[in-house]
Design goal:
Elements lengths: L7 E2 L10 E2 L16 E5 L5 H11 L3 E6 L2 H13 L3 E6 L5 H14 L5 E4 L14 H26 L6 E7 L8 H9 L3 H21 L5 E7 L17 H13 L8 E4 L1
Parallel strand pairs: 1-2, 3-4, 3-6, 4-5, 6-7, 7-8, 8-9
Antiparallel strand pairs: 2-9
Helix pairs in contact: 1-7, 3-4, 4-6
């Protein structure tokens, strides 16, 4: 078993810390090794999603890798298989809701009912508040919000009948710009207005889903990443956040006892 980082309870007004917890509590049980379990990695690539895929595979999950590039997916699936896991790639544009629903239906037919939905599409569009193209904002919202909601609507009807079901989402530090003036300034300085808007809307959706799906026994949680991820497509080796640490945070959220769980932690 991997060594997991212990999270500490903090207020969201102080986002700069390691594995910090927000107030809300949810319930899940992850000890269901006798059942076939499937995780759908939506937005697969180098960095966090790759670490999550390998970690869940090491715990016996079948892994569905979803992104637009089939060659990348096939390579990722081979790497997991080489370590004794089972994975398959599915090419899809996660910004198109109907395509998202169709591919997740295919995953369920071929691998089994999705136990864990992991949402991680990259969003790197740049522009300030005056020059940003409106289509860029829409594109970010489609990836971070519309696609996520479509995925949830597709998997939850079957997921609700399975113990250990969860929806896990990669959040971004700029989602806290409304609560932190320094982050709002950073969003403008780095041209990350579209990213901030998309991640903020995503964060609101995550907390709404947590409330709405708790009665069904489905855990919903996010890790808010407060910095560049080492090895990711956007920052490469300049990243300061280790993807395996974020994956460990997600696993802790997934496996935490009911009285120690949270909807949101931050890393970075």
């Amino acid at each position: 078993m991997l060594s997991l980082h212990r999270a500490r309870s903090v207020s969201s007004s102080r986002p700069h810390g390691r594995a910090q917890l927000s107030r809300r509590t949810v319930i899940v049980s992850a000890s269901h090794s006798e059942e076939k379990r499937v995780i759908a990695i939506c937005g697969y690539g180098p960095g966090i999603s790759n670490s999550v895929a390998h970690l869940w595979a090491s715990h016996g999950f079948q892994v569905a890798l979803l992104s637009r590039t089939q060659a990348r997916l096939d390579h990722g699936a081979k790497e997991i298989s080489a370590k004794g896991g089972h994975a398959k790639g599915y090419a899809v544009d996660l910004a198109k809701p109907e395509d998202v629903k169709a591919v997740l239906q295919k995953v369920s037919q071929e691998l089994g009912t999705v136990t864990v939905l992991f949402w991680n599409p990259a969003s790197n569009d740049r522009g300030d508040v005056l020059s940003l193209d409106i289509d860029t904002i829409e594109h970010n919202l489609q990836h971070q919000v519309t696609g996520l909601l479509a995925a949830v609507q597709q998997v939850v009807p079957d997921m609700a009948s399975r113990p250990g079901s969860a929806i896990l989402v990669t959040g971004g530090g700029l989602s806290l710009a409304a609560e932190n003036r320094a982050l709002a300034k950073a969003a403008n300085a780095m041209g990350g207005v579209a990213v901030a808007a998309g991640k903020a809307a995503q964060r609101a959706l995550v907390h709404s889903l947590a409330e709405g799906l708790a009665p069904k026994g489905i855990r919903v949680a996010e890790v808010v990443v407060m910095g560049g991820v080492k090895g990711s497509a956007s920052v490469g080796d300049r990243g300061t956040v280790l993807p395996e640490d974020v994956a460990a945070d997600f696993w802790q959220l997934y496996t935490a006892a009911p009285d120690a769980a949270s909807v949101s932690v931050s890393r970075g």
